[in-house]
Specification:
Elements: H1 2-9, H2 17-26, H3 29-33, E1 55-64, E2 67-74, E3 80-85, H4 90-104, E4 109-112, H5 121-130, E5 133-136, H6 146-162, H7 167-180, H8 192-197, H9 214-241
Parallel strand pairs: 1-4, 4-5
Antiparallel strand pairs: 1-2, 2-3
Length: about 240
């Protein structure tokens, strides 16, 4: 509900837009079916890192449609990375983490539960090689890894709401919406993309606003190239006359 209102405010306005969006979500049968239970106790939050991609929270979701989902959440920017895999073994986990770290770099620490893939010697060796501190939550207390646990719950409910048979397409739809939607937890209601990448990312809703400055820049470069070509031609003629 909050994300729908946030992204709507960024592009359009109509009278009573907040109330109508709230009413629309309350009447959504899929949203009601996927709603989570009230929180039993107040949880203590992890400290927020000063810089992005410093502490990552990892967990697995699934199986959903015979797929497991490796969930990676940056504690600073709330940017999620999710990999759909056929199994949740340690080798698969390390392989996907290598792929992720090749894009964004190595974090200072990772937080996981005591799953067999995270408690393996292969995963421990992987962390040692990259100089990553591995923090494991206490046994039988998955809520200690609340950042990843909450996102796993968000992922499951989102896939249930989308209700698509193409799980990969549904996953990318969810990731795009989550990454580029303003987040009330972040300073100045930034989106996870802005907090991690330091810039706004162009999405389909930007087609409703003014056009991008790419075309004028291209035209300017073409004019500069034509001017340079003409000047070169004139200089060449003068040299031949001499």
């Amino acid at each position: 509900m909050q994300r729908m209102k946030s992204i709507a405010r960024s592009y359009v306005y109509w009278p009573n837009n907040d109330a109508e969006i709230e009413d629309f979500v309350r009447k959504c049968s899929r949203c009601a079916a996927a709603a989570k239970a009230p929180v039993k106790t107040t949880l203590s939050s992890w400290p927020i890192p000063v810089e992005p991609w410093t502490r990552l929270h990892l967990d697995y979701a699934g199986p959903i449609q015979e797929k497991f989902f490796l969930v990676i959440v940056d504690a600073h920017s709330k940017w999620p990375e999710i990999f759909a895999v056929n199994n949740s073994t340690a080798s698969t986990t390390v392989s996907k983490l290598r792929e992720c770290f090749a894009r964004f770099g190595c974090p200072v620490s990772v937080v996981t539960d005591n799953g067999t893939q995270f408690d393996s010697e292969l995963f421990a060796k992987f962390c040692r090689e990259l100089g990553i501190e591995h923090i494991k939550t206490p046994p039988f207390h998955p809520q200690s890894n609340g950042q990843a646990e909450r996102f796993v719950d968000t992922l499951k409910r989102a896939l249930l709401k989308i209700g698509s048979e193409d799980i990969d397409a549904a996953l990318q739809t969810f990731l795009q919406a989550y990454r580029y939607t303003p987040n009330a937890v972040l300073p100045d209601n930034k989106s996870p993309a802005e907090a991690l990448l330091g810039r706004k990312v162009r999405i389909v809703f930007d087609l409703m606003t003014k056009s991008t400055p790419e075309t004028p820049l291209i035209n300017q470069r073409q004019n500069e190239q034509q001017t340079w070509s003409q000047e070169t031609h004139v200089c060449g003629r003068r040299g031949s006359l001499r």
